[in-house]
Amino acid sequence: MDWLINLFTTTDSVAHIALLYAIVIAVGVLLGKIKIGGISLGVTFVLFAGILAGHVGFTAPTNILTFIQDFGLILFVFCIGLQVGPGFFESFRKGGVTLNALSTAMIFLDVLVMFACYYLFFDTSNPNNLPMMVGTLYGAVTNTPGLGAANEALNSVFPKGQVPQIASGYACAYPLGVLGIIGATIAIRYITHTRLEDEEAKLNEQEAENPHAKPYQMHLRVTNTYIVGRSLLEISQFLNRDIVCSRLLHDGQVTIPTRDTIFCQNDEILVVCAEADAEAIQAFIGPEIDTPWETGNEKQPLISKRIVVTRPSMNGKTLGKMHFSSVYGVNVTRITRQGMDLFASRNHHFQVGDRLMVVGPEDNVNRVAEMMGNSIKRLDAPNIATIFIGILIGILFGSIPLALPGMPVPLKLGIAGGPLIIAILIGRFGYKFKLVTYTTTSANMMLREIGLVLFLASVGIKAGAGFWETVVQGDGLKYVYTGFLITVIPILIVGTIARLKFKFNYFTIMGMIAGTYTDPPALAYANSSCTKEAPAIGYSTVYPLSMFLRIFSAQIVVLFFCGA
């Protein structure tokens, strides 16, 4: 049995370290699936499993724990950056500006409430109390990347071996933070006297008034000699308008034309286009026929099909300008990007890897699939080189020192902020530099989750040794109730303003709050309360900027105040 005892006690062996992480991560993930009141802590429970392991002395050398922690953090934030990058800049367009401004205000208020609690309830002469409150802040807002950024920034402020284990404050505030977000969202409903039935009815009215271009169908005779001998694709490109030619009568025979079909003089065609484009198309092709010929085909049944955007030319194009509804007679009901369900709004910008759920006649759905690419094989190969090139550039970028007045040490974005910003830029503009930035949803989620559990396990194990003294015998109860205040006060203030002053739909506010706190359980609750896509709109609009600000503000607070 000596071999088994040595496996658990020889802390510097590779087998022991691998066993330690395997047990902590497996136990944490399994316990995190347990739901209480329909809510679970998810993968964050790995932190608590790590704290328990560290508390009982099941640990590893500090330098090994630090390396795995930092590498996991880099992997985690970089994959988040790739996920939010394509929609990061688009989230500032038009209606998204106000939502993002409200979200930014909420993040700013979280920091203000944290400082208020620090000065009201804690001994300000103790240099460890403010860092612990930063950990409490990120537990209260359920934002693990922010915890990682703050933890990394503390290493540049405090001497080696004296860095506060802020994961203790995070662990105390996190459980009540999850409940507080949902509870405060419900409270807004009663404060503003909002009826869910009325809000859903308003969404139905807006949907009915959706200003999509109206479809227009017409039968034309080809009389323009310029287009004789040219293909349907060439004609469509010359017009620079979306048209669908669904039937062609040539020499008395009706066929279904393709993009390569050649037009002849006096051919008769059945064209569907946007109503606004009908006059220009008719003037270019030929006159409309008063008595249309019979197609001889019954109406096709509707089908739904998942289509993947793989054609590079679709990058950056907006859904509204594609005229899918009016021209092709199909509707895009849902868009999935990097595992996130996005609302199919007219302003959505396509990116390679987007997955569209398209509903319509089979022929037209297949035409849309051909136009978007829909070649899944192109996306199957993992783009490992792009990921590590991005991480390399991100680490270099994060290491650039920026001297700012009043700061004790130069500001560095570090291994959290640098890779995050580079990943966002690569995710949005990488295709312009011939970088294949798409990563399959499963690959992104796998890398991200591996990075997250490695980070959480390492932080928990390192914090476990002093957890009992810090929390149970120290200020643990204060971290719990101050964390709750940090969670609910900004939500109640900003949520009420968004409802009463800016008149946002309540379901959109629910999504905005969930996105600001980057909290999936809150989004799940919002989605269960509404049959429409309003929560998803609010969530996806503010999530990219919120994630960036949470990580960036963690470093700013630590470097400006904790190092003073």
Automatic annotation (TrEMBL):
<feature type="transmembrane region" description="Helical">
    <location>
        <begin position="450"/>
        <end position="468"/>
    </location>
</feature>
<feature type="domain" description="RCK C-terminal">
    <location>
        <begin position="203"/>
        <end position="287"/>
    </location>
</feature>
<dbReference type="Pfam" id="PF06826">
    <property type="entry name" value="Asp-Al_Ex"/>
</dbReference>
<feature type="transmembrane region" description="Helical">
    <location>
        <begin position="39"/>
        <end position="58"/>
    </location>
</feature>
<feature type="transmembrane region" description="Helical">
    <location>
        <begin position="480"/>
        <end position="500"/>
    </location>
</feature>
<dbReference type="InterPro" id="IPR036721">
    <property type="entry name" value="RCK_C_sf"/>
</dbReference>
<feature type="transmembrane region" description="Helical">
    <location>
        <begin position="173"/>
        <end position="192"/>
    </location>
</feature>
<feature type="transmembrane region" description="Helical">
    <location>
        <begin position="410"/>
        <end position="429"/>
    </location>
</feature>
<feature type="domain" description="RCK C-terminal">
    <location>
        <begin position="290"/>
        <end position="374"/>
    </location>
</feature>
<comment type="similarity">
    <text>Belongs to the AAE transporter (TC 2.A.81) family.</text>
</comment>
<dbReference type="InterPro" id="IPR050144">
    <property type="entry name" value="AAE_transporter"/>
</dbReference>
<dbReference type="GO" id="GO:0005886">
    <property type="term" value="C:plasma membrane"/>
</dbReference>
<keyword id="KW-1133">Transmembrane helix</keyword>
<feature type="transmembrane region" description="Helical">
    <location>
        <begin position="381"/>
        <end position="404"/>
    </location>
</feature>
<feature type="transmembrane region" description="Helical">
    <location>
        <begin position="64"/>
        <end position="85"/>
    </location>
</feature>
<dbReference type="GO" id="GO:0006813">
    <property type="term" value="P:potassium ion transport"/>
</dbReference>
<keyword id="KW-0472">Membrane</keyword>
<dbReference type="Pfam" id="PF02080">
    <property type="entry name" value="TrkA_C"/>
</dbReference>
<protein>
    <submittedName>
        <fullName>Transporter</fullName>
    </submittedName>
</protein>
<keyword id="KW-1003">Cell membrane</keyword>
<feature type="transmembrane region" description="Helical">
    <location>
        <begin position="13"/>
        <end position="32"/>
    </location>
</feature>
<keyword id="KW-0812">Transmembrane</keyword>
<dbReference type="InterPro" id="IPR006512">
    <property type="entry name" value="YidE_YbjL"/>
</dbReference>
<dbReference type="GO" id="GO:0008324">
    <property type="term" value="F:monoatomic cation transmembrane transporter activity"/>
</dbReference>
<dbReference type="InterPro" id="IPR006037">
    <property type="entry name" value="RCK_C"/>
</dbReference>
<feature type="transmembrane region" description="Helical">
    <location>
        <begin position="97"/>
        <end position="121"/>
    </location>
</feature>
<keyword id="KW-0813">Transport</keyword>
